[in-house]
Amino acid sequence: MTTLPQAVAAGPVVLDGGLATLLEARGNDLTSDLWSARLLLDDPDEIVAAHREYFQAGAQVAITGSYQASYEGFARLGLSRAESEAALLASVACAVRARDQFDDGSPRWVAASIGPYGAVLADGSEYRGDYGRTATELYEWHRPRFEVLARSGADVLAFETVPAMVEVEAIVRLLDGTGLRAWISLTAEDGRTRAGEPIEDAFALAASIPEVFAVGVNCCPAPQVAGLAAAASATGKSVVVYPNSGEVWDGVTRSWSGDPTFTATEVESWTAAGASLIGGCCRVGPAQISALASALRN
């Protein structure tokens, strides 16, 4: 089967939308700090159904429900380390189950989500980058989960919503020399990481090893995607973009505010800027992915 990096090199590939967004729309309670990862334990069939719905909408890549999953979070629920590992592997198995329900000959892939350190804190710090952690500390924190998902059978690894260069450095150290295929996606605003560094420097660091086949952004405002995609394209890597709806998440009150700005009509400017892996993040659902897929086909 064609690998995802090969497919991206041949033309735009459609990612899915926000998994938690769809799970909530389907009536699931995600108020736990584990968000959608809680359903890996309570109702994995719901995660399979959500992945299937995105595939039906035209997505070609399912990003797994492991973004919020962590050993610390599972331990708070009383899970052992072995049980936590099984839950991480289940996140990939759910996406594979959804993919295997299609036999139309169209290629589809699974990306194992590896969320940032801030996600486990569940306080919105992945949108600030104010961790107070060194690259070595972040490397050691990421390593156990990375090692499990690296052998999960996912087609690629997706390091998502990375807010600062110190975490990019940790991720590059994890990947360097492994021979795995991964993308690194930062969250940025106004041409800078959430920690305030020039986004070009962060992209350059992320693109510095062969294991990373794509760099870009996610969970950022859609109107800024074209400029950020152009900066990512300068690295010579494929470019991944999947913005949020444009609404703003408050990690303290756990609520959204503002008006949506995500529209499929902008996709032409994203591809013109170099984007080739394109989807949506928080508050972007199957309807928007369907419109996006249609726009890319046309």
From TrEMBL:
The keyword Acetylation does not apply. Binds 1 zinc ion per subunit. The keyword Translocase does not apply. Keywords: Metal-binding, Methyltransferase, Transferase, Zinc. Gene3D superfamilies: Homocysteine-binding-like domain. Its cofactor is Zn(2+). Residues 1-296 form the Hcy-binding domain. It holds the Pfam family S-methyl_trans. This is Homocysteine S-methyltransferase. It comes from Nakamurella panacisegetis.
